[in-house]
Write a structure and sequence with these properties.
Helix 1 packs antiparallel against helix 2 and helix 2 (55-75) runs antiparallel to helix 3. By secondary structure, the protein is of the alpha+beta class. It has one domain. Strand 1 and strand 2 form a beta hairpin. It has helices spanning 3-21, 55-75, 89-106, 141-161, 172-183; strands at 24-28, 36-41, 51-53, 109-112, 126-127, 137-139. Strands 2-1-3 form a three-stranded antiparallel beta sheet, covered by helices on one side. Strands 5-4-6 form a three-stranded antiparallel beta sheet.
Length: 184
């Protein structure tokens, strides 16, 4: 493990600690105690009596930090120094996936709490910045999960597709030995 990878682990640990200290909360209104409303991020030990931690969003946040830490770990391996002119497609794919995962969490899908139904795929009213979303909106975690899964699957497929294929060049002695083994 090189210095850059150690720094990646330290930054990921700090991010995880901050996310667990300031998790996303949902609050239940007095008028409608069935449907929780996204109420923002608060200190974990100062929740109100009508608030609960939104575990779905917290799980996605933790997963995205861990995935991005893994991507950074791969990008910063000490195999060779990556310069902008010699960046390969695999590293570019990892960087694009990391940026997209962060953007997905910064702008999650929201819907108005009055439009909540028991449908498998609920409707949504738009993507809002997570720290400036209207108070009467809730995060549609089903759509958020679908977004993250599609991003990870597409990124993984692209990463595999862009893998550099190396061709092994055999010496004449190795070729002769291989031919003899294949004749047996």
């Amino acid at each position: 493990m090189n210095q850059r990878q150690k720094l990646t682990l330290i930054i990921a640990a700090i991010n995880l600690a901050l996310m667990l200290l300031f998790p996303p909360f949902d609050s239940y209104s007095i008028a409608n105690s069935i449907i929780p409303i996204f109420s923002g991020f608060h200190f974990a030990f100062s929740k109100g009596s009508n608030e609960i931690i939104n575990s779905g969003v917290l799980f996605l946040e933790v997963a995205v930090v861990l995935i991005n830490a893994g991507i950074a770990w791969l990008l910063l391996r000490s195999r060779k120094v990556v310069t902008l002119r010699k960046i390969n497609y695999q590293n570019a794919t990892l960087a694009v996936v990391a940026v997209n995962l962060v953007m997905i969490l910064l702008f999650p899908p929201f819907e108005n709490y009055s439009a909540v139904t028991r449908a498998i795929l609920p409707s949504f009213q738009g993507f809002y910045f997570i720290f400036a979303a209207p108070r009467e909106h809730i995060i549609v975690t089903t759509l958020l999960y679908i977004e993250v899964i599609f991003m990870l699957v597409n990124g993984g497929l692209l990463w595999l597709m862009f893998k550099e294929r190396t061709q092994t060049i055999l010496t004449p002695e190795e070729e002769l030995k291989l031919m003899r083994e294949l004749r047996k």
